[in-house]
Amino acid sequence: MTGTLLKVEGLETGYGDIQVVWRADLEVRQGAITALIGSNGAGKTTLLRALSGLLPLRNGAIFVSGRDLAGASPQQFVEHGVAHVPEGRRLITGLSVHDNLMLGAYRRKDGKQAIRADLERMYALFPRLAERRRQDATTMSGGEQQMCAIARGLMAAPGLLLIDELSLGLAPAIVDQLVTTLERVRADGTSILLVEQDVGIALELADFVYVMDQGRTVRNGPADEIAADPSIIAAYMGT
Amino acid sequence: MLWLQVLVNGLAVGGLYACIAVGFSLVWGVLNIINILHGSLIVLGGYLAFFAHQYWGINPFLFAPLAGAVMFAGGVALQYCVINHVMARPFLITLLLTFGLNLFLDNSMLALFSADYRKVLLNPAPGVFDLGSIVVPADRIYATLVGLVLISALALLLRFTQFGRAIIAVRMDRDAAALLGVNVRWTYAVAFGLGVFMAGSAGALLSAIFPISPVASAGYLSKAFVICVIGGLGSIPGAVIGGFALGVIESFGALLLGPEHALTLAFVLLIALLAVRPSGLLGRQGFA
Ligand SMILES: Nc1ncnc2c1ncn2[C@@H]1O[C@H](COP(=O)(O)OP(=O)(O)OP(=O)(O)O)[C@@H](O)[C@H]1O
Ligand SMILES: [Mg+2]
């Protein structure tokens, strides 16, 4: 439960000439679930894209387990144990659940046996996926697709799972189920950085919370502390 | 009996025609490039087989995968070093680039090998399978069989290997594929290389059946194009159906309109088909 898995310092990034993230500083501790909240357009997705090598940095540093990964490619981030479950799930059309999960293991070098064992572990974690392993992944319900996207991320055997918008568009019952599953995933040794527009869920699941506003990480603190802050509740809980 | 013979003649080249088209279809489906170079690559494969036969006496039907393998390496390098730089550009730019590469390769082959038509003359000649009332030319059957074996191997590769899944992922969603750790540029290069492999193999297979010359490249490109559109773009079964369909259409076209108009009938039927089924017989998104 100790040690820093991910450390981001003064990160700036954007799209071409458009700068979106102006200053992000954050830390994900080993074994923790860390949430990143903020209003629409704050730059959360953009930050996560930079944290998996999809966007180049303008400035700043990214350390994964102490290793400097600024400027690394998406493949290198995956190889260093960072898996990204993207906003909108982005499952591959035309491929079955099984094939999508196998793609999650694309960069693994620990052999067929280990991959097969993890595949069975995913089917145990998400029994719904086991029933549908031959089905085209994008023809499943939203909740099932989110399960598949999370399982696909886990198939990389990551130390850190980045999840962008866990609950978006899903029924509360499914979200509860996913929350329980993620707690198990964390207990099994994978740390999580969660971007979540539903602040209630973020505060329930996370140990530590960062607040992002207009491209900057403006606040952070333990989840119970943030949950007790009236200004946060006023700004992000719509009450 | 004449009609049956004509039908069999057409079917006999079906697998060869599928082989001509499947690489073109793969590159179009996965990289979204209409590869104008494809016809010249077929001719190049034909020359490789011609010289392999002339100098080492290697049978072109057996040489086909080897011709494909040699050209595969060149295809990967060409895509990675040249075509990759315009992948993100509009469709017309990639079309123009492959058109330029086509001119370059055709003219290089003209300079090296002249425009003379060449053909592998097998000794002993393959002859025919005599089925009583009809005969089946053996060389076409060999080409079709080897062609279908290579196409099946490609289909298995795409369907059951990690690399095949990556090709489909890159086709469907580049960013999602990158997040899974797929090297997008390299995957494009190898997919293009596979297209070149099939073109080179097809060229070797046809070198003992059809004449080889740089000036024939446009004809092979047209065949590939027609087959893909008939069968439907972006599917291997589509290329196979289209290959057999074009074989039969050409065979009847030659009978009804004369050999020089064989492809004309195919184009006429193609336009009619497009009016009814714009996506071709088996067309769909992506490639599998
Ligand atoms: N591809 C892009 N090109 C240019 N600008 C972009 C691009 N994607 C996002 N942006 C801009 O970046 C800003 C931040 O977007 P981002 O998607 O990171 O926000 P977010 O915090 O994830 O919001 P949400 O809660 O709605 O998902 C927005 O102003 C958006 O318009
Ligand atoms: Mg977002």
From TrEMBL, chain A:
Pfam families: ABC_tran (PF00005). InterPro entries: AAA+_ATPase, ABC_transporter-like_ATP-bd, BCAA_Transport_ATP-bd_LivF, P-loop_NTPase. Keywords: Amino-acid transport, ATP-binding, Nucleotide-binding, Transport. Residues 6-239 form the ABC transporter domain. GO terms for molecular function: ATP binding. Belongs to the ABC transporter superfamily. PANTHER family: HIGH-AFFINITY BRANCHED-CHAIN AMINO ACID TRANSPORT ATP-BINDING PROTEIN LIVF. This is ABC transporter ATP-binding protein. It comes from Camelimonas fluminis.
TrEMBL record, chain B:
The chain crosses the membrane at residues 6-29, 36-56, 62-83, 90-113, 141-161, 182-212, 224-249, 261-280. The keyword Transmembrane helix applies. Keywords: Amino-acid transport, Cell membrane, Membrane, Transmembrane, Transmembrane helix, Transport. InterPro entries: ABC_transp_permease, BCAA_transport_permease. It is found in: Cell membrane. Belongs to the binding-protein-dependent transport system permease family. LivHM subfamily. This is Branched-chain amino acid ABC transporter permease.
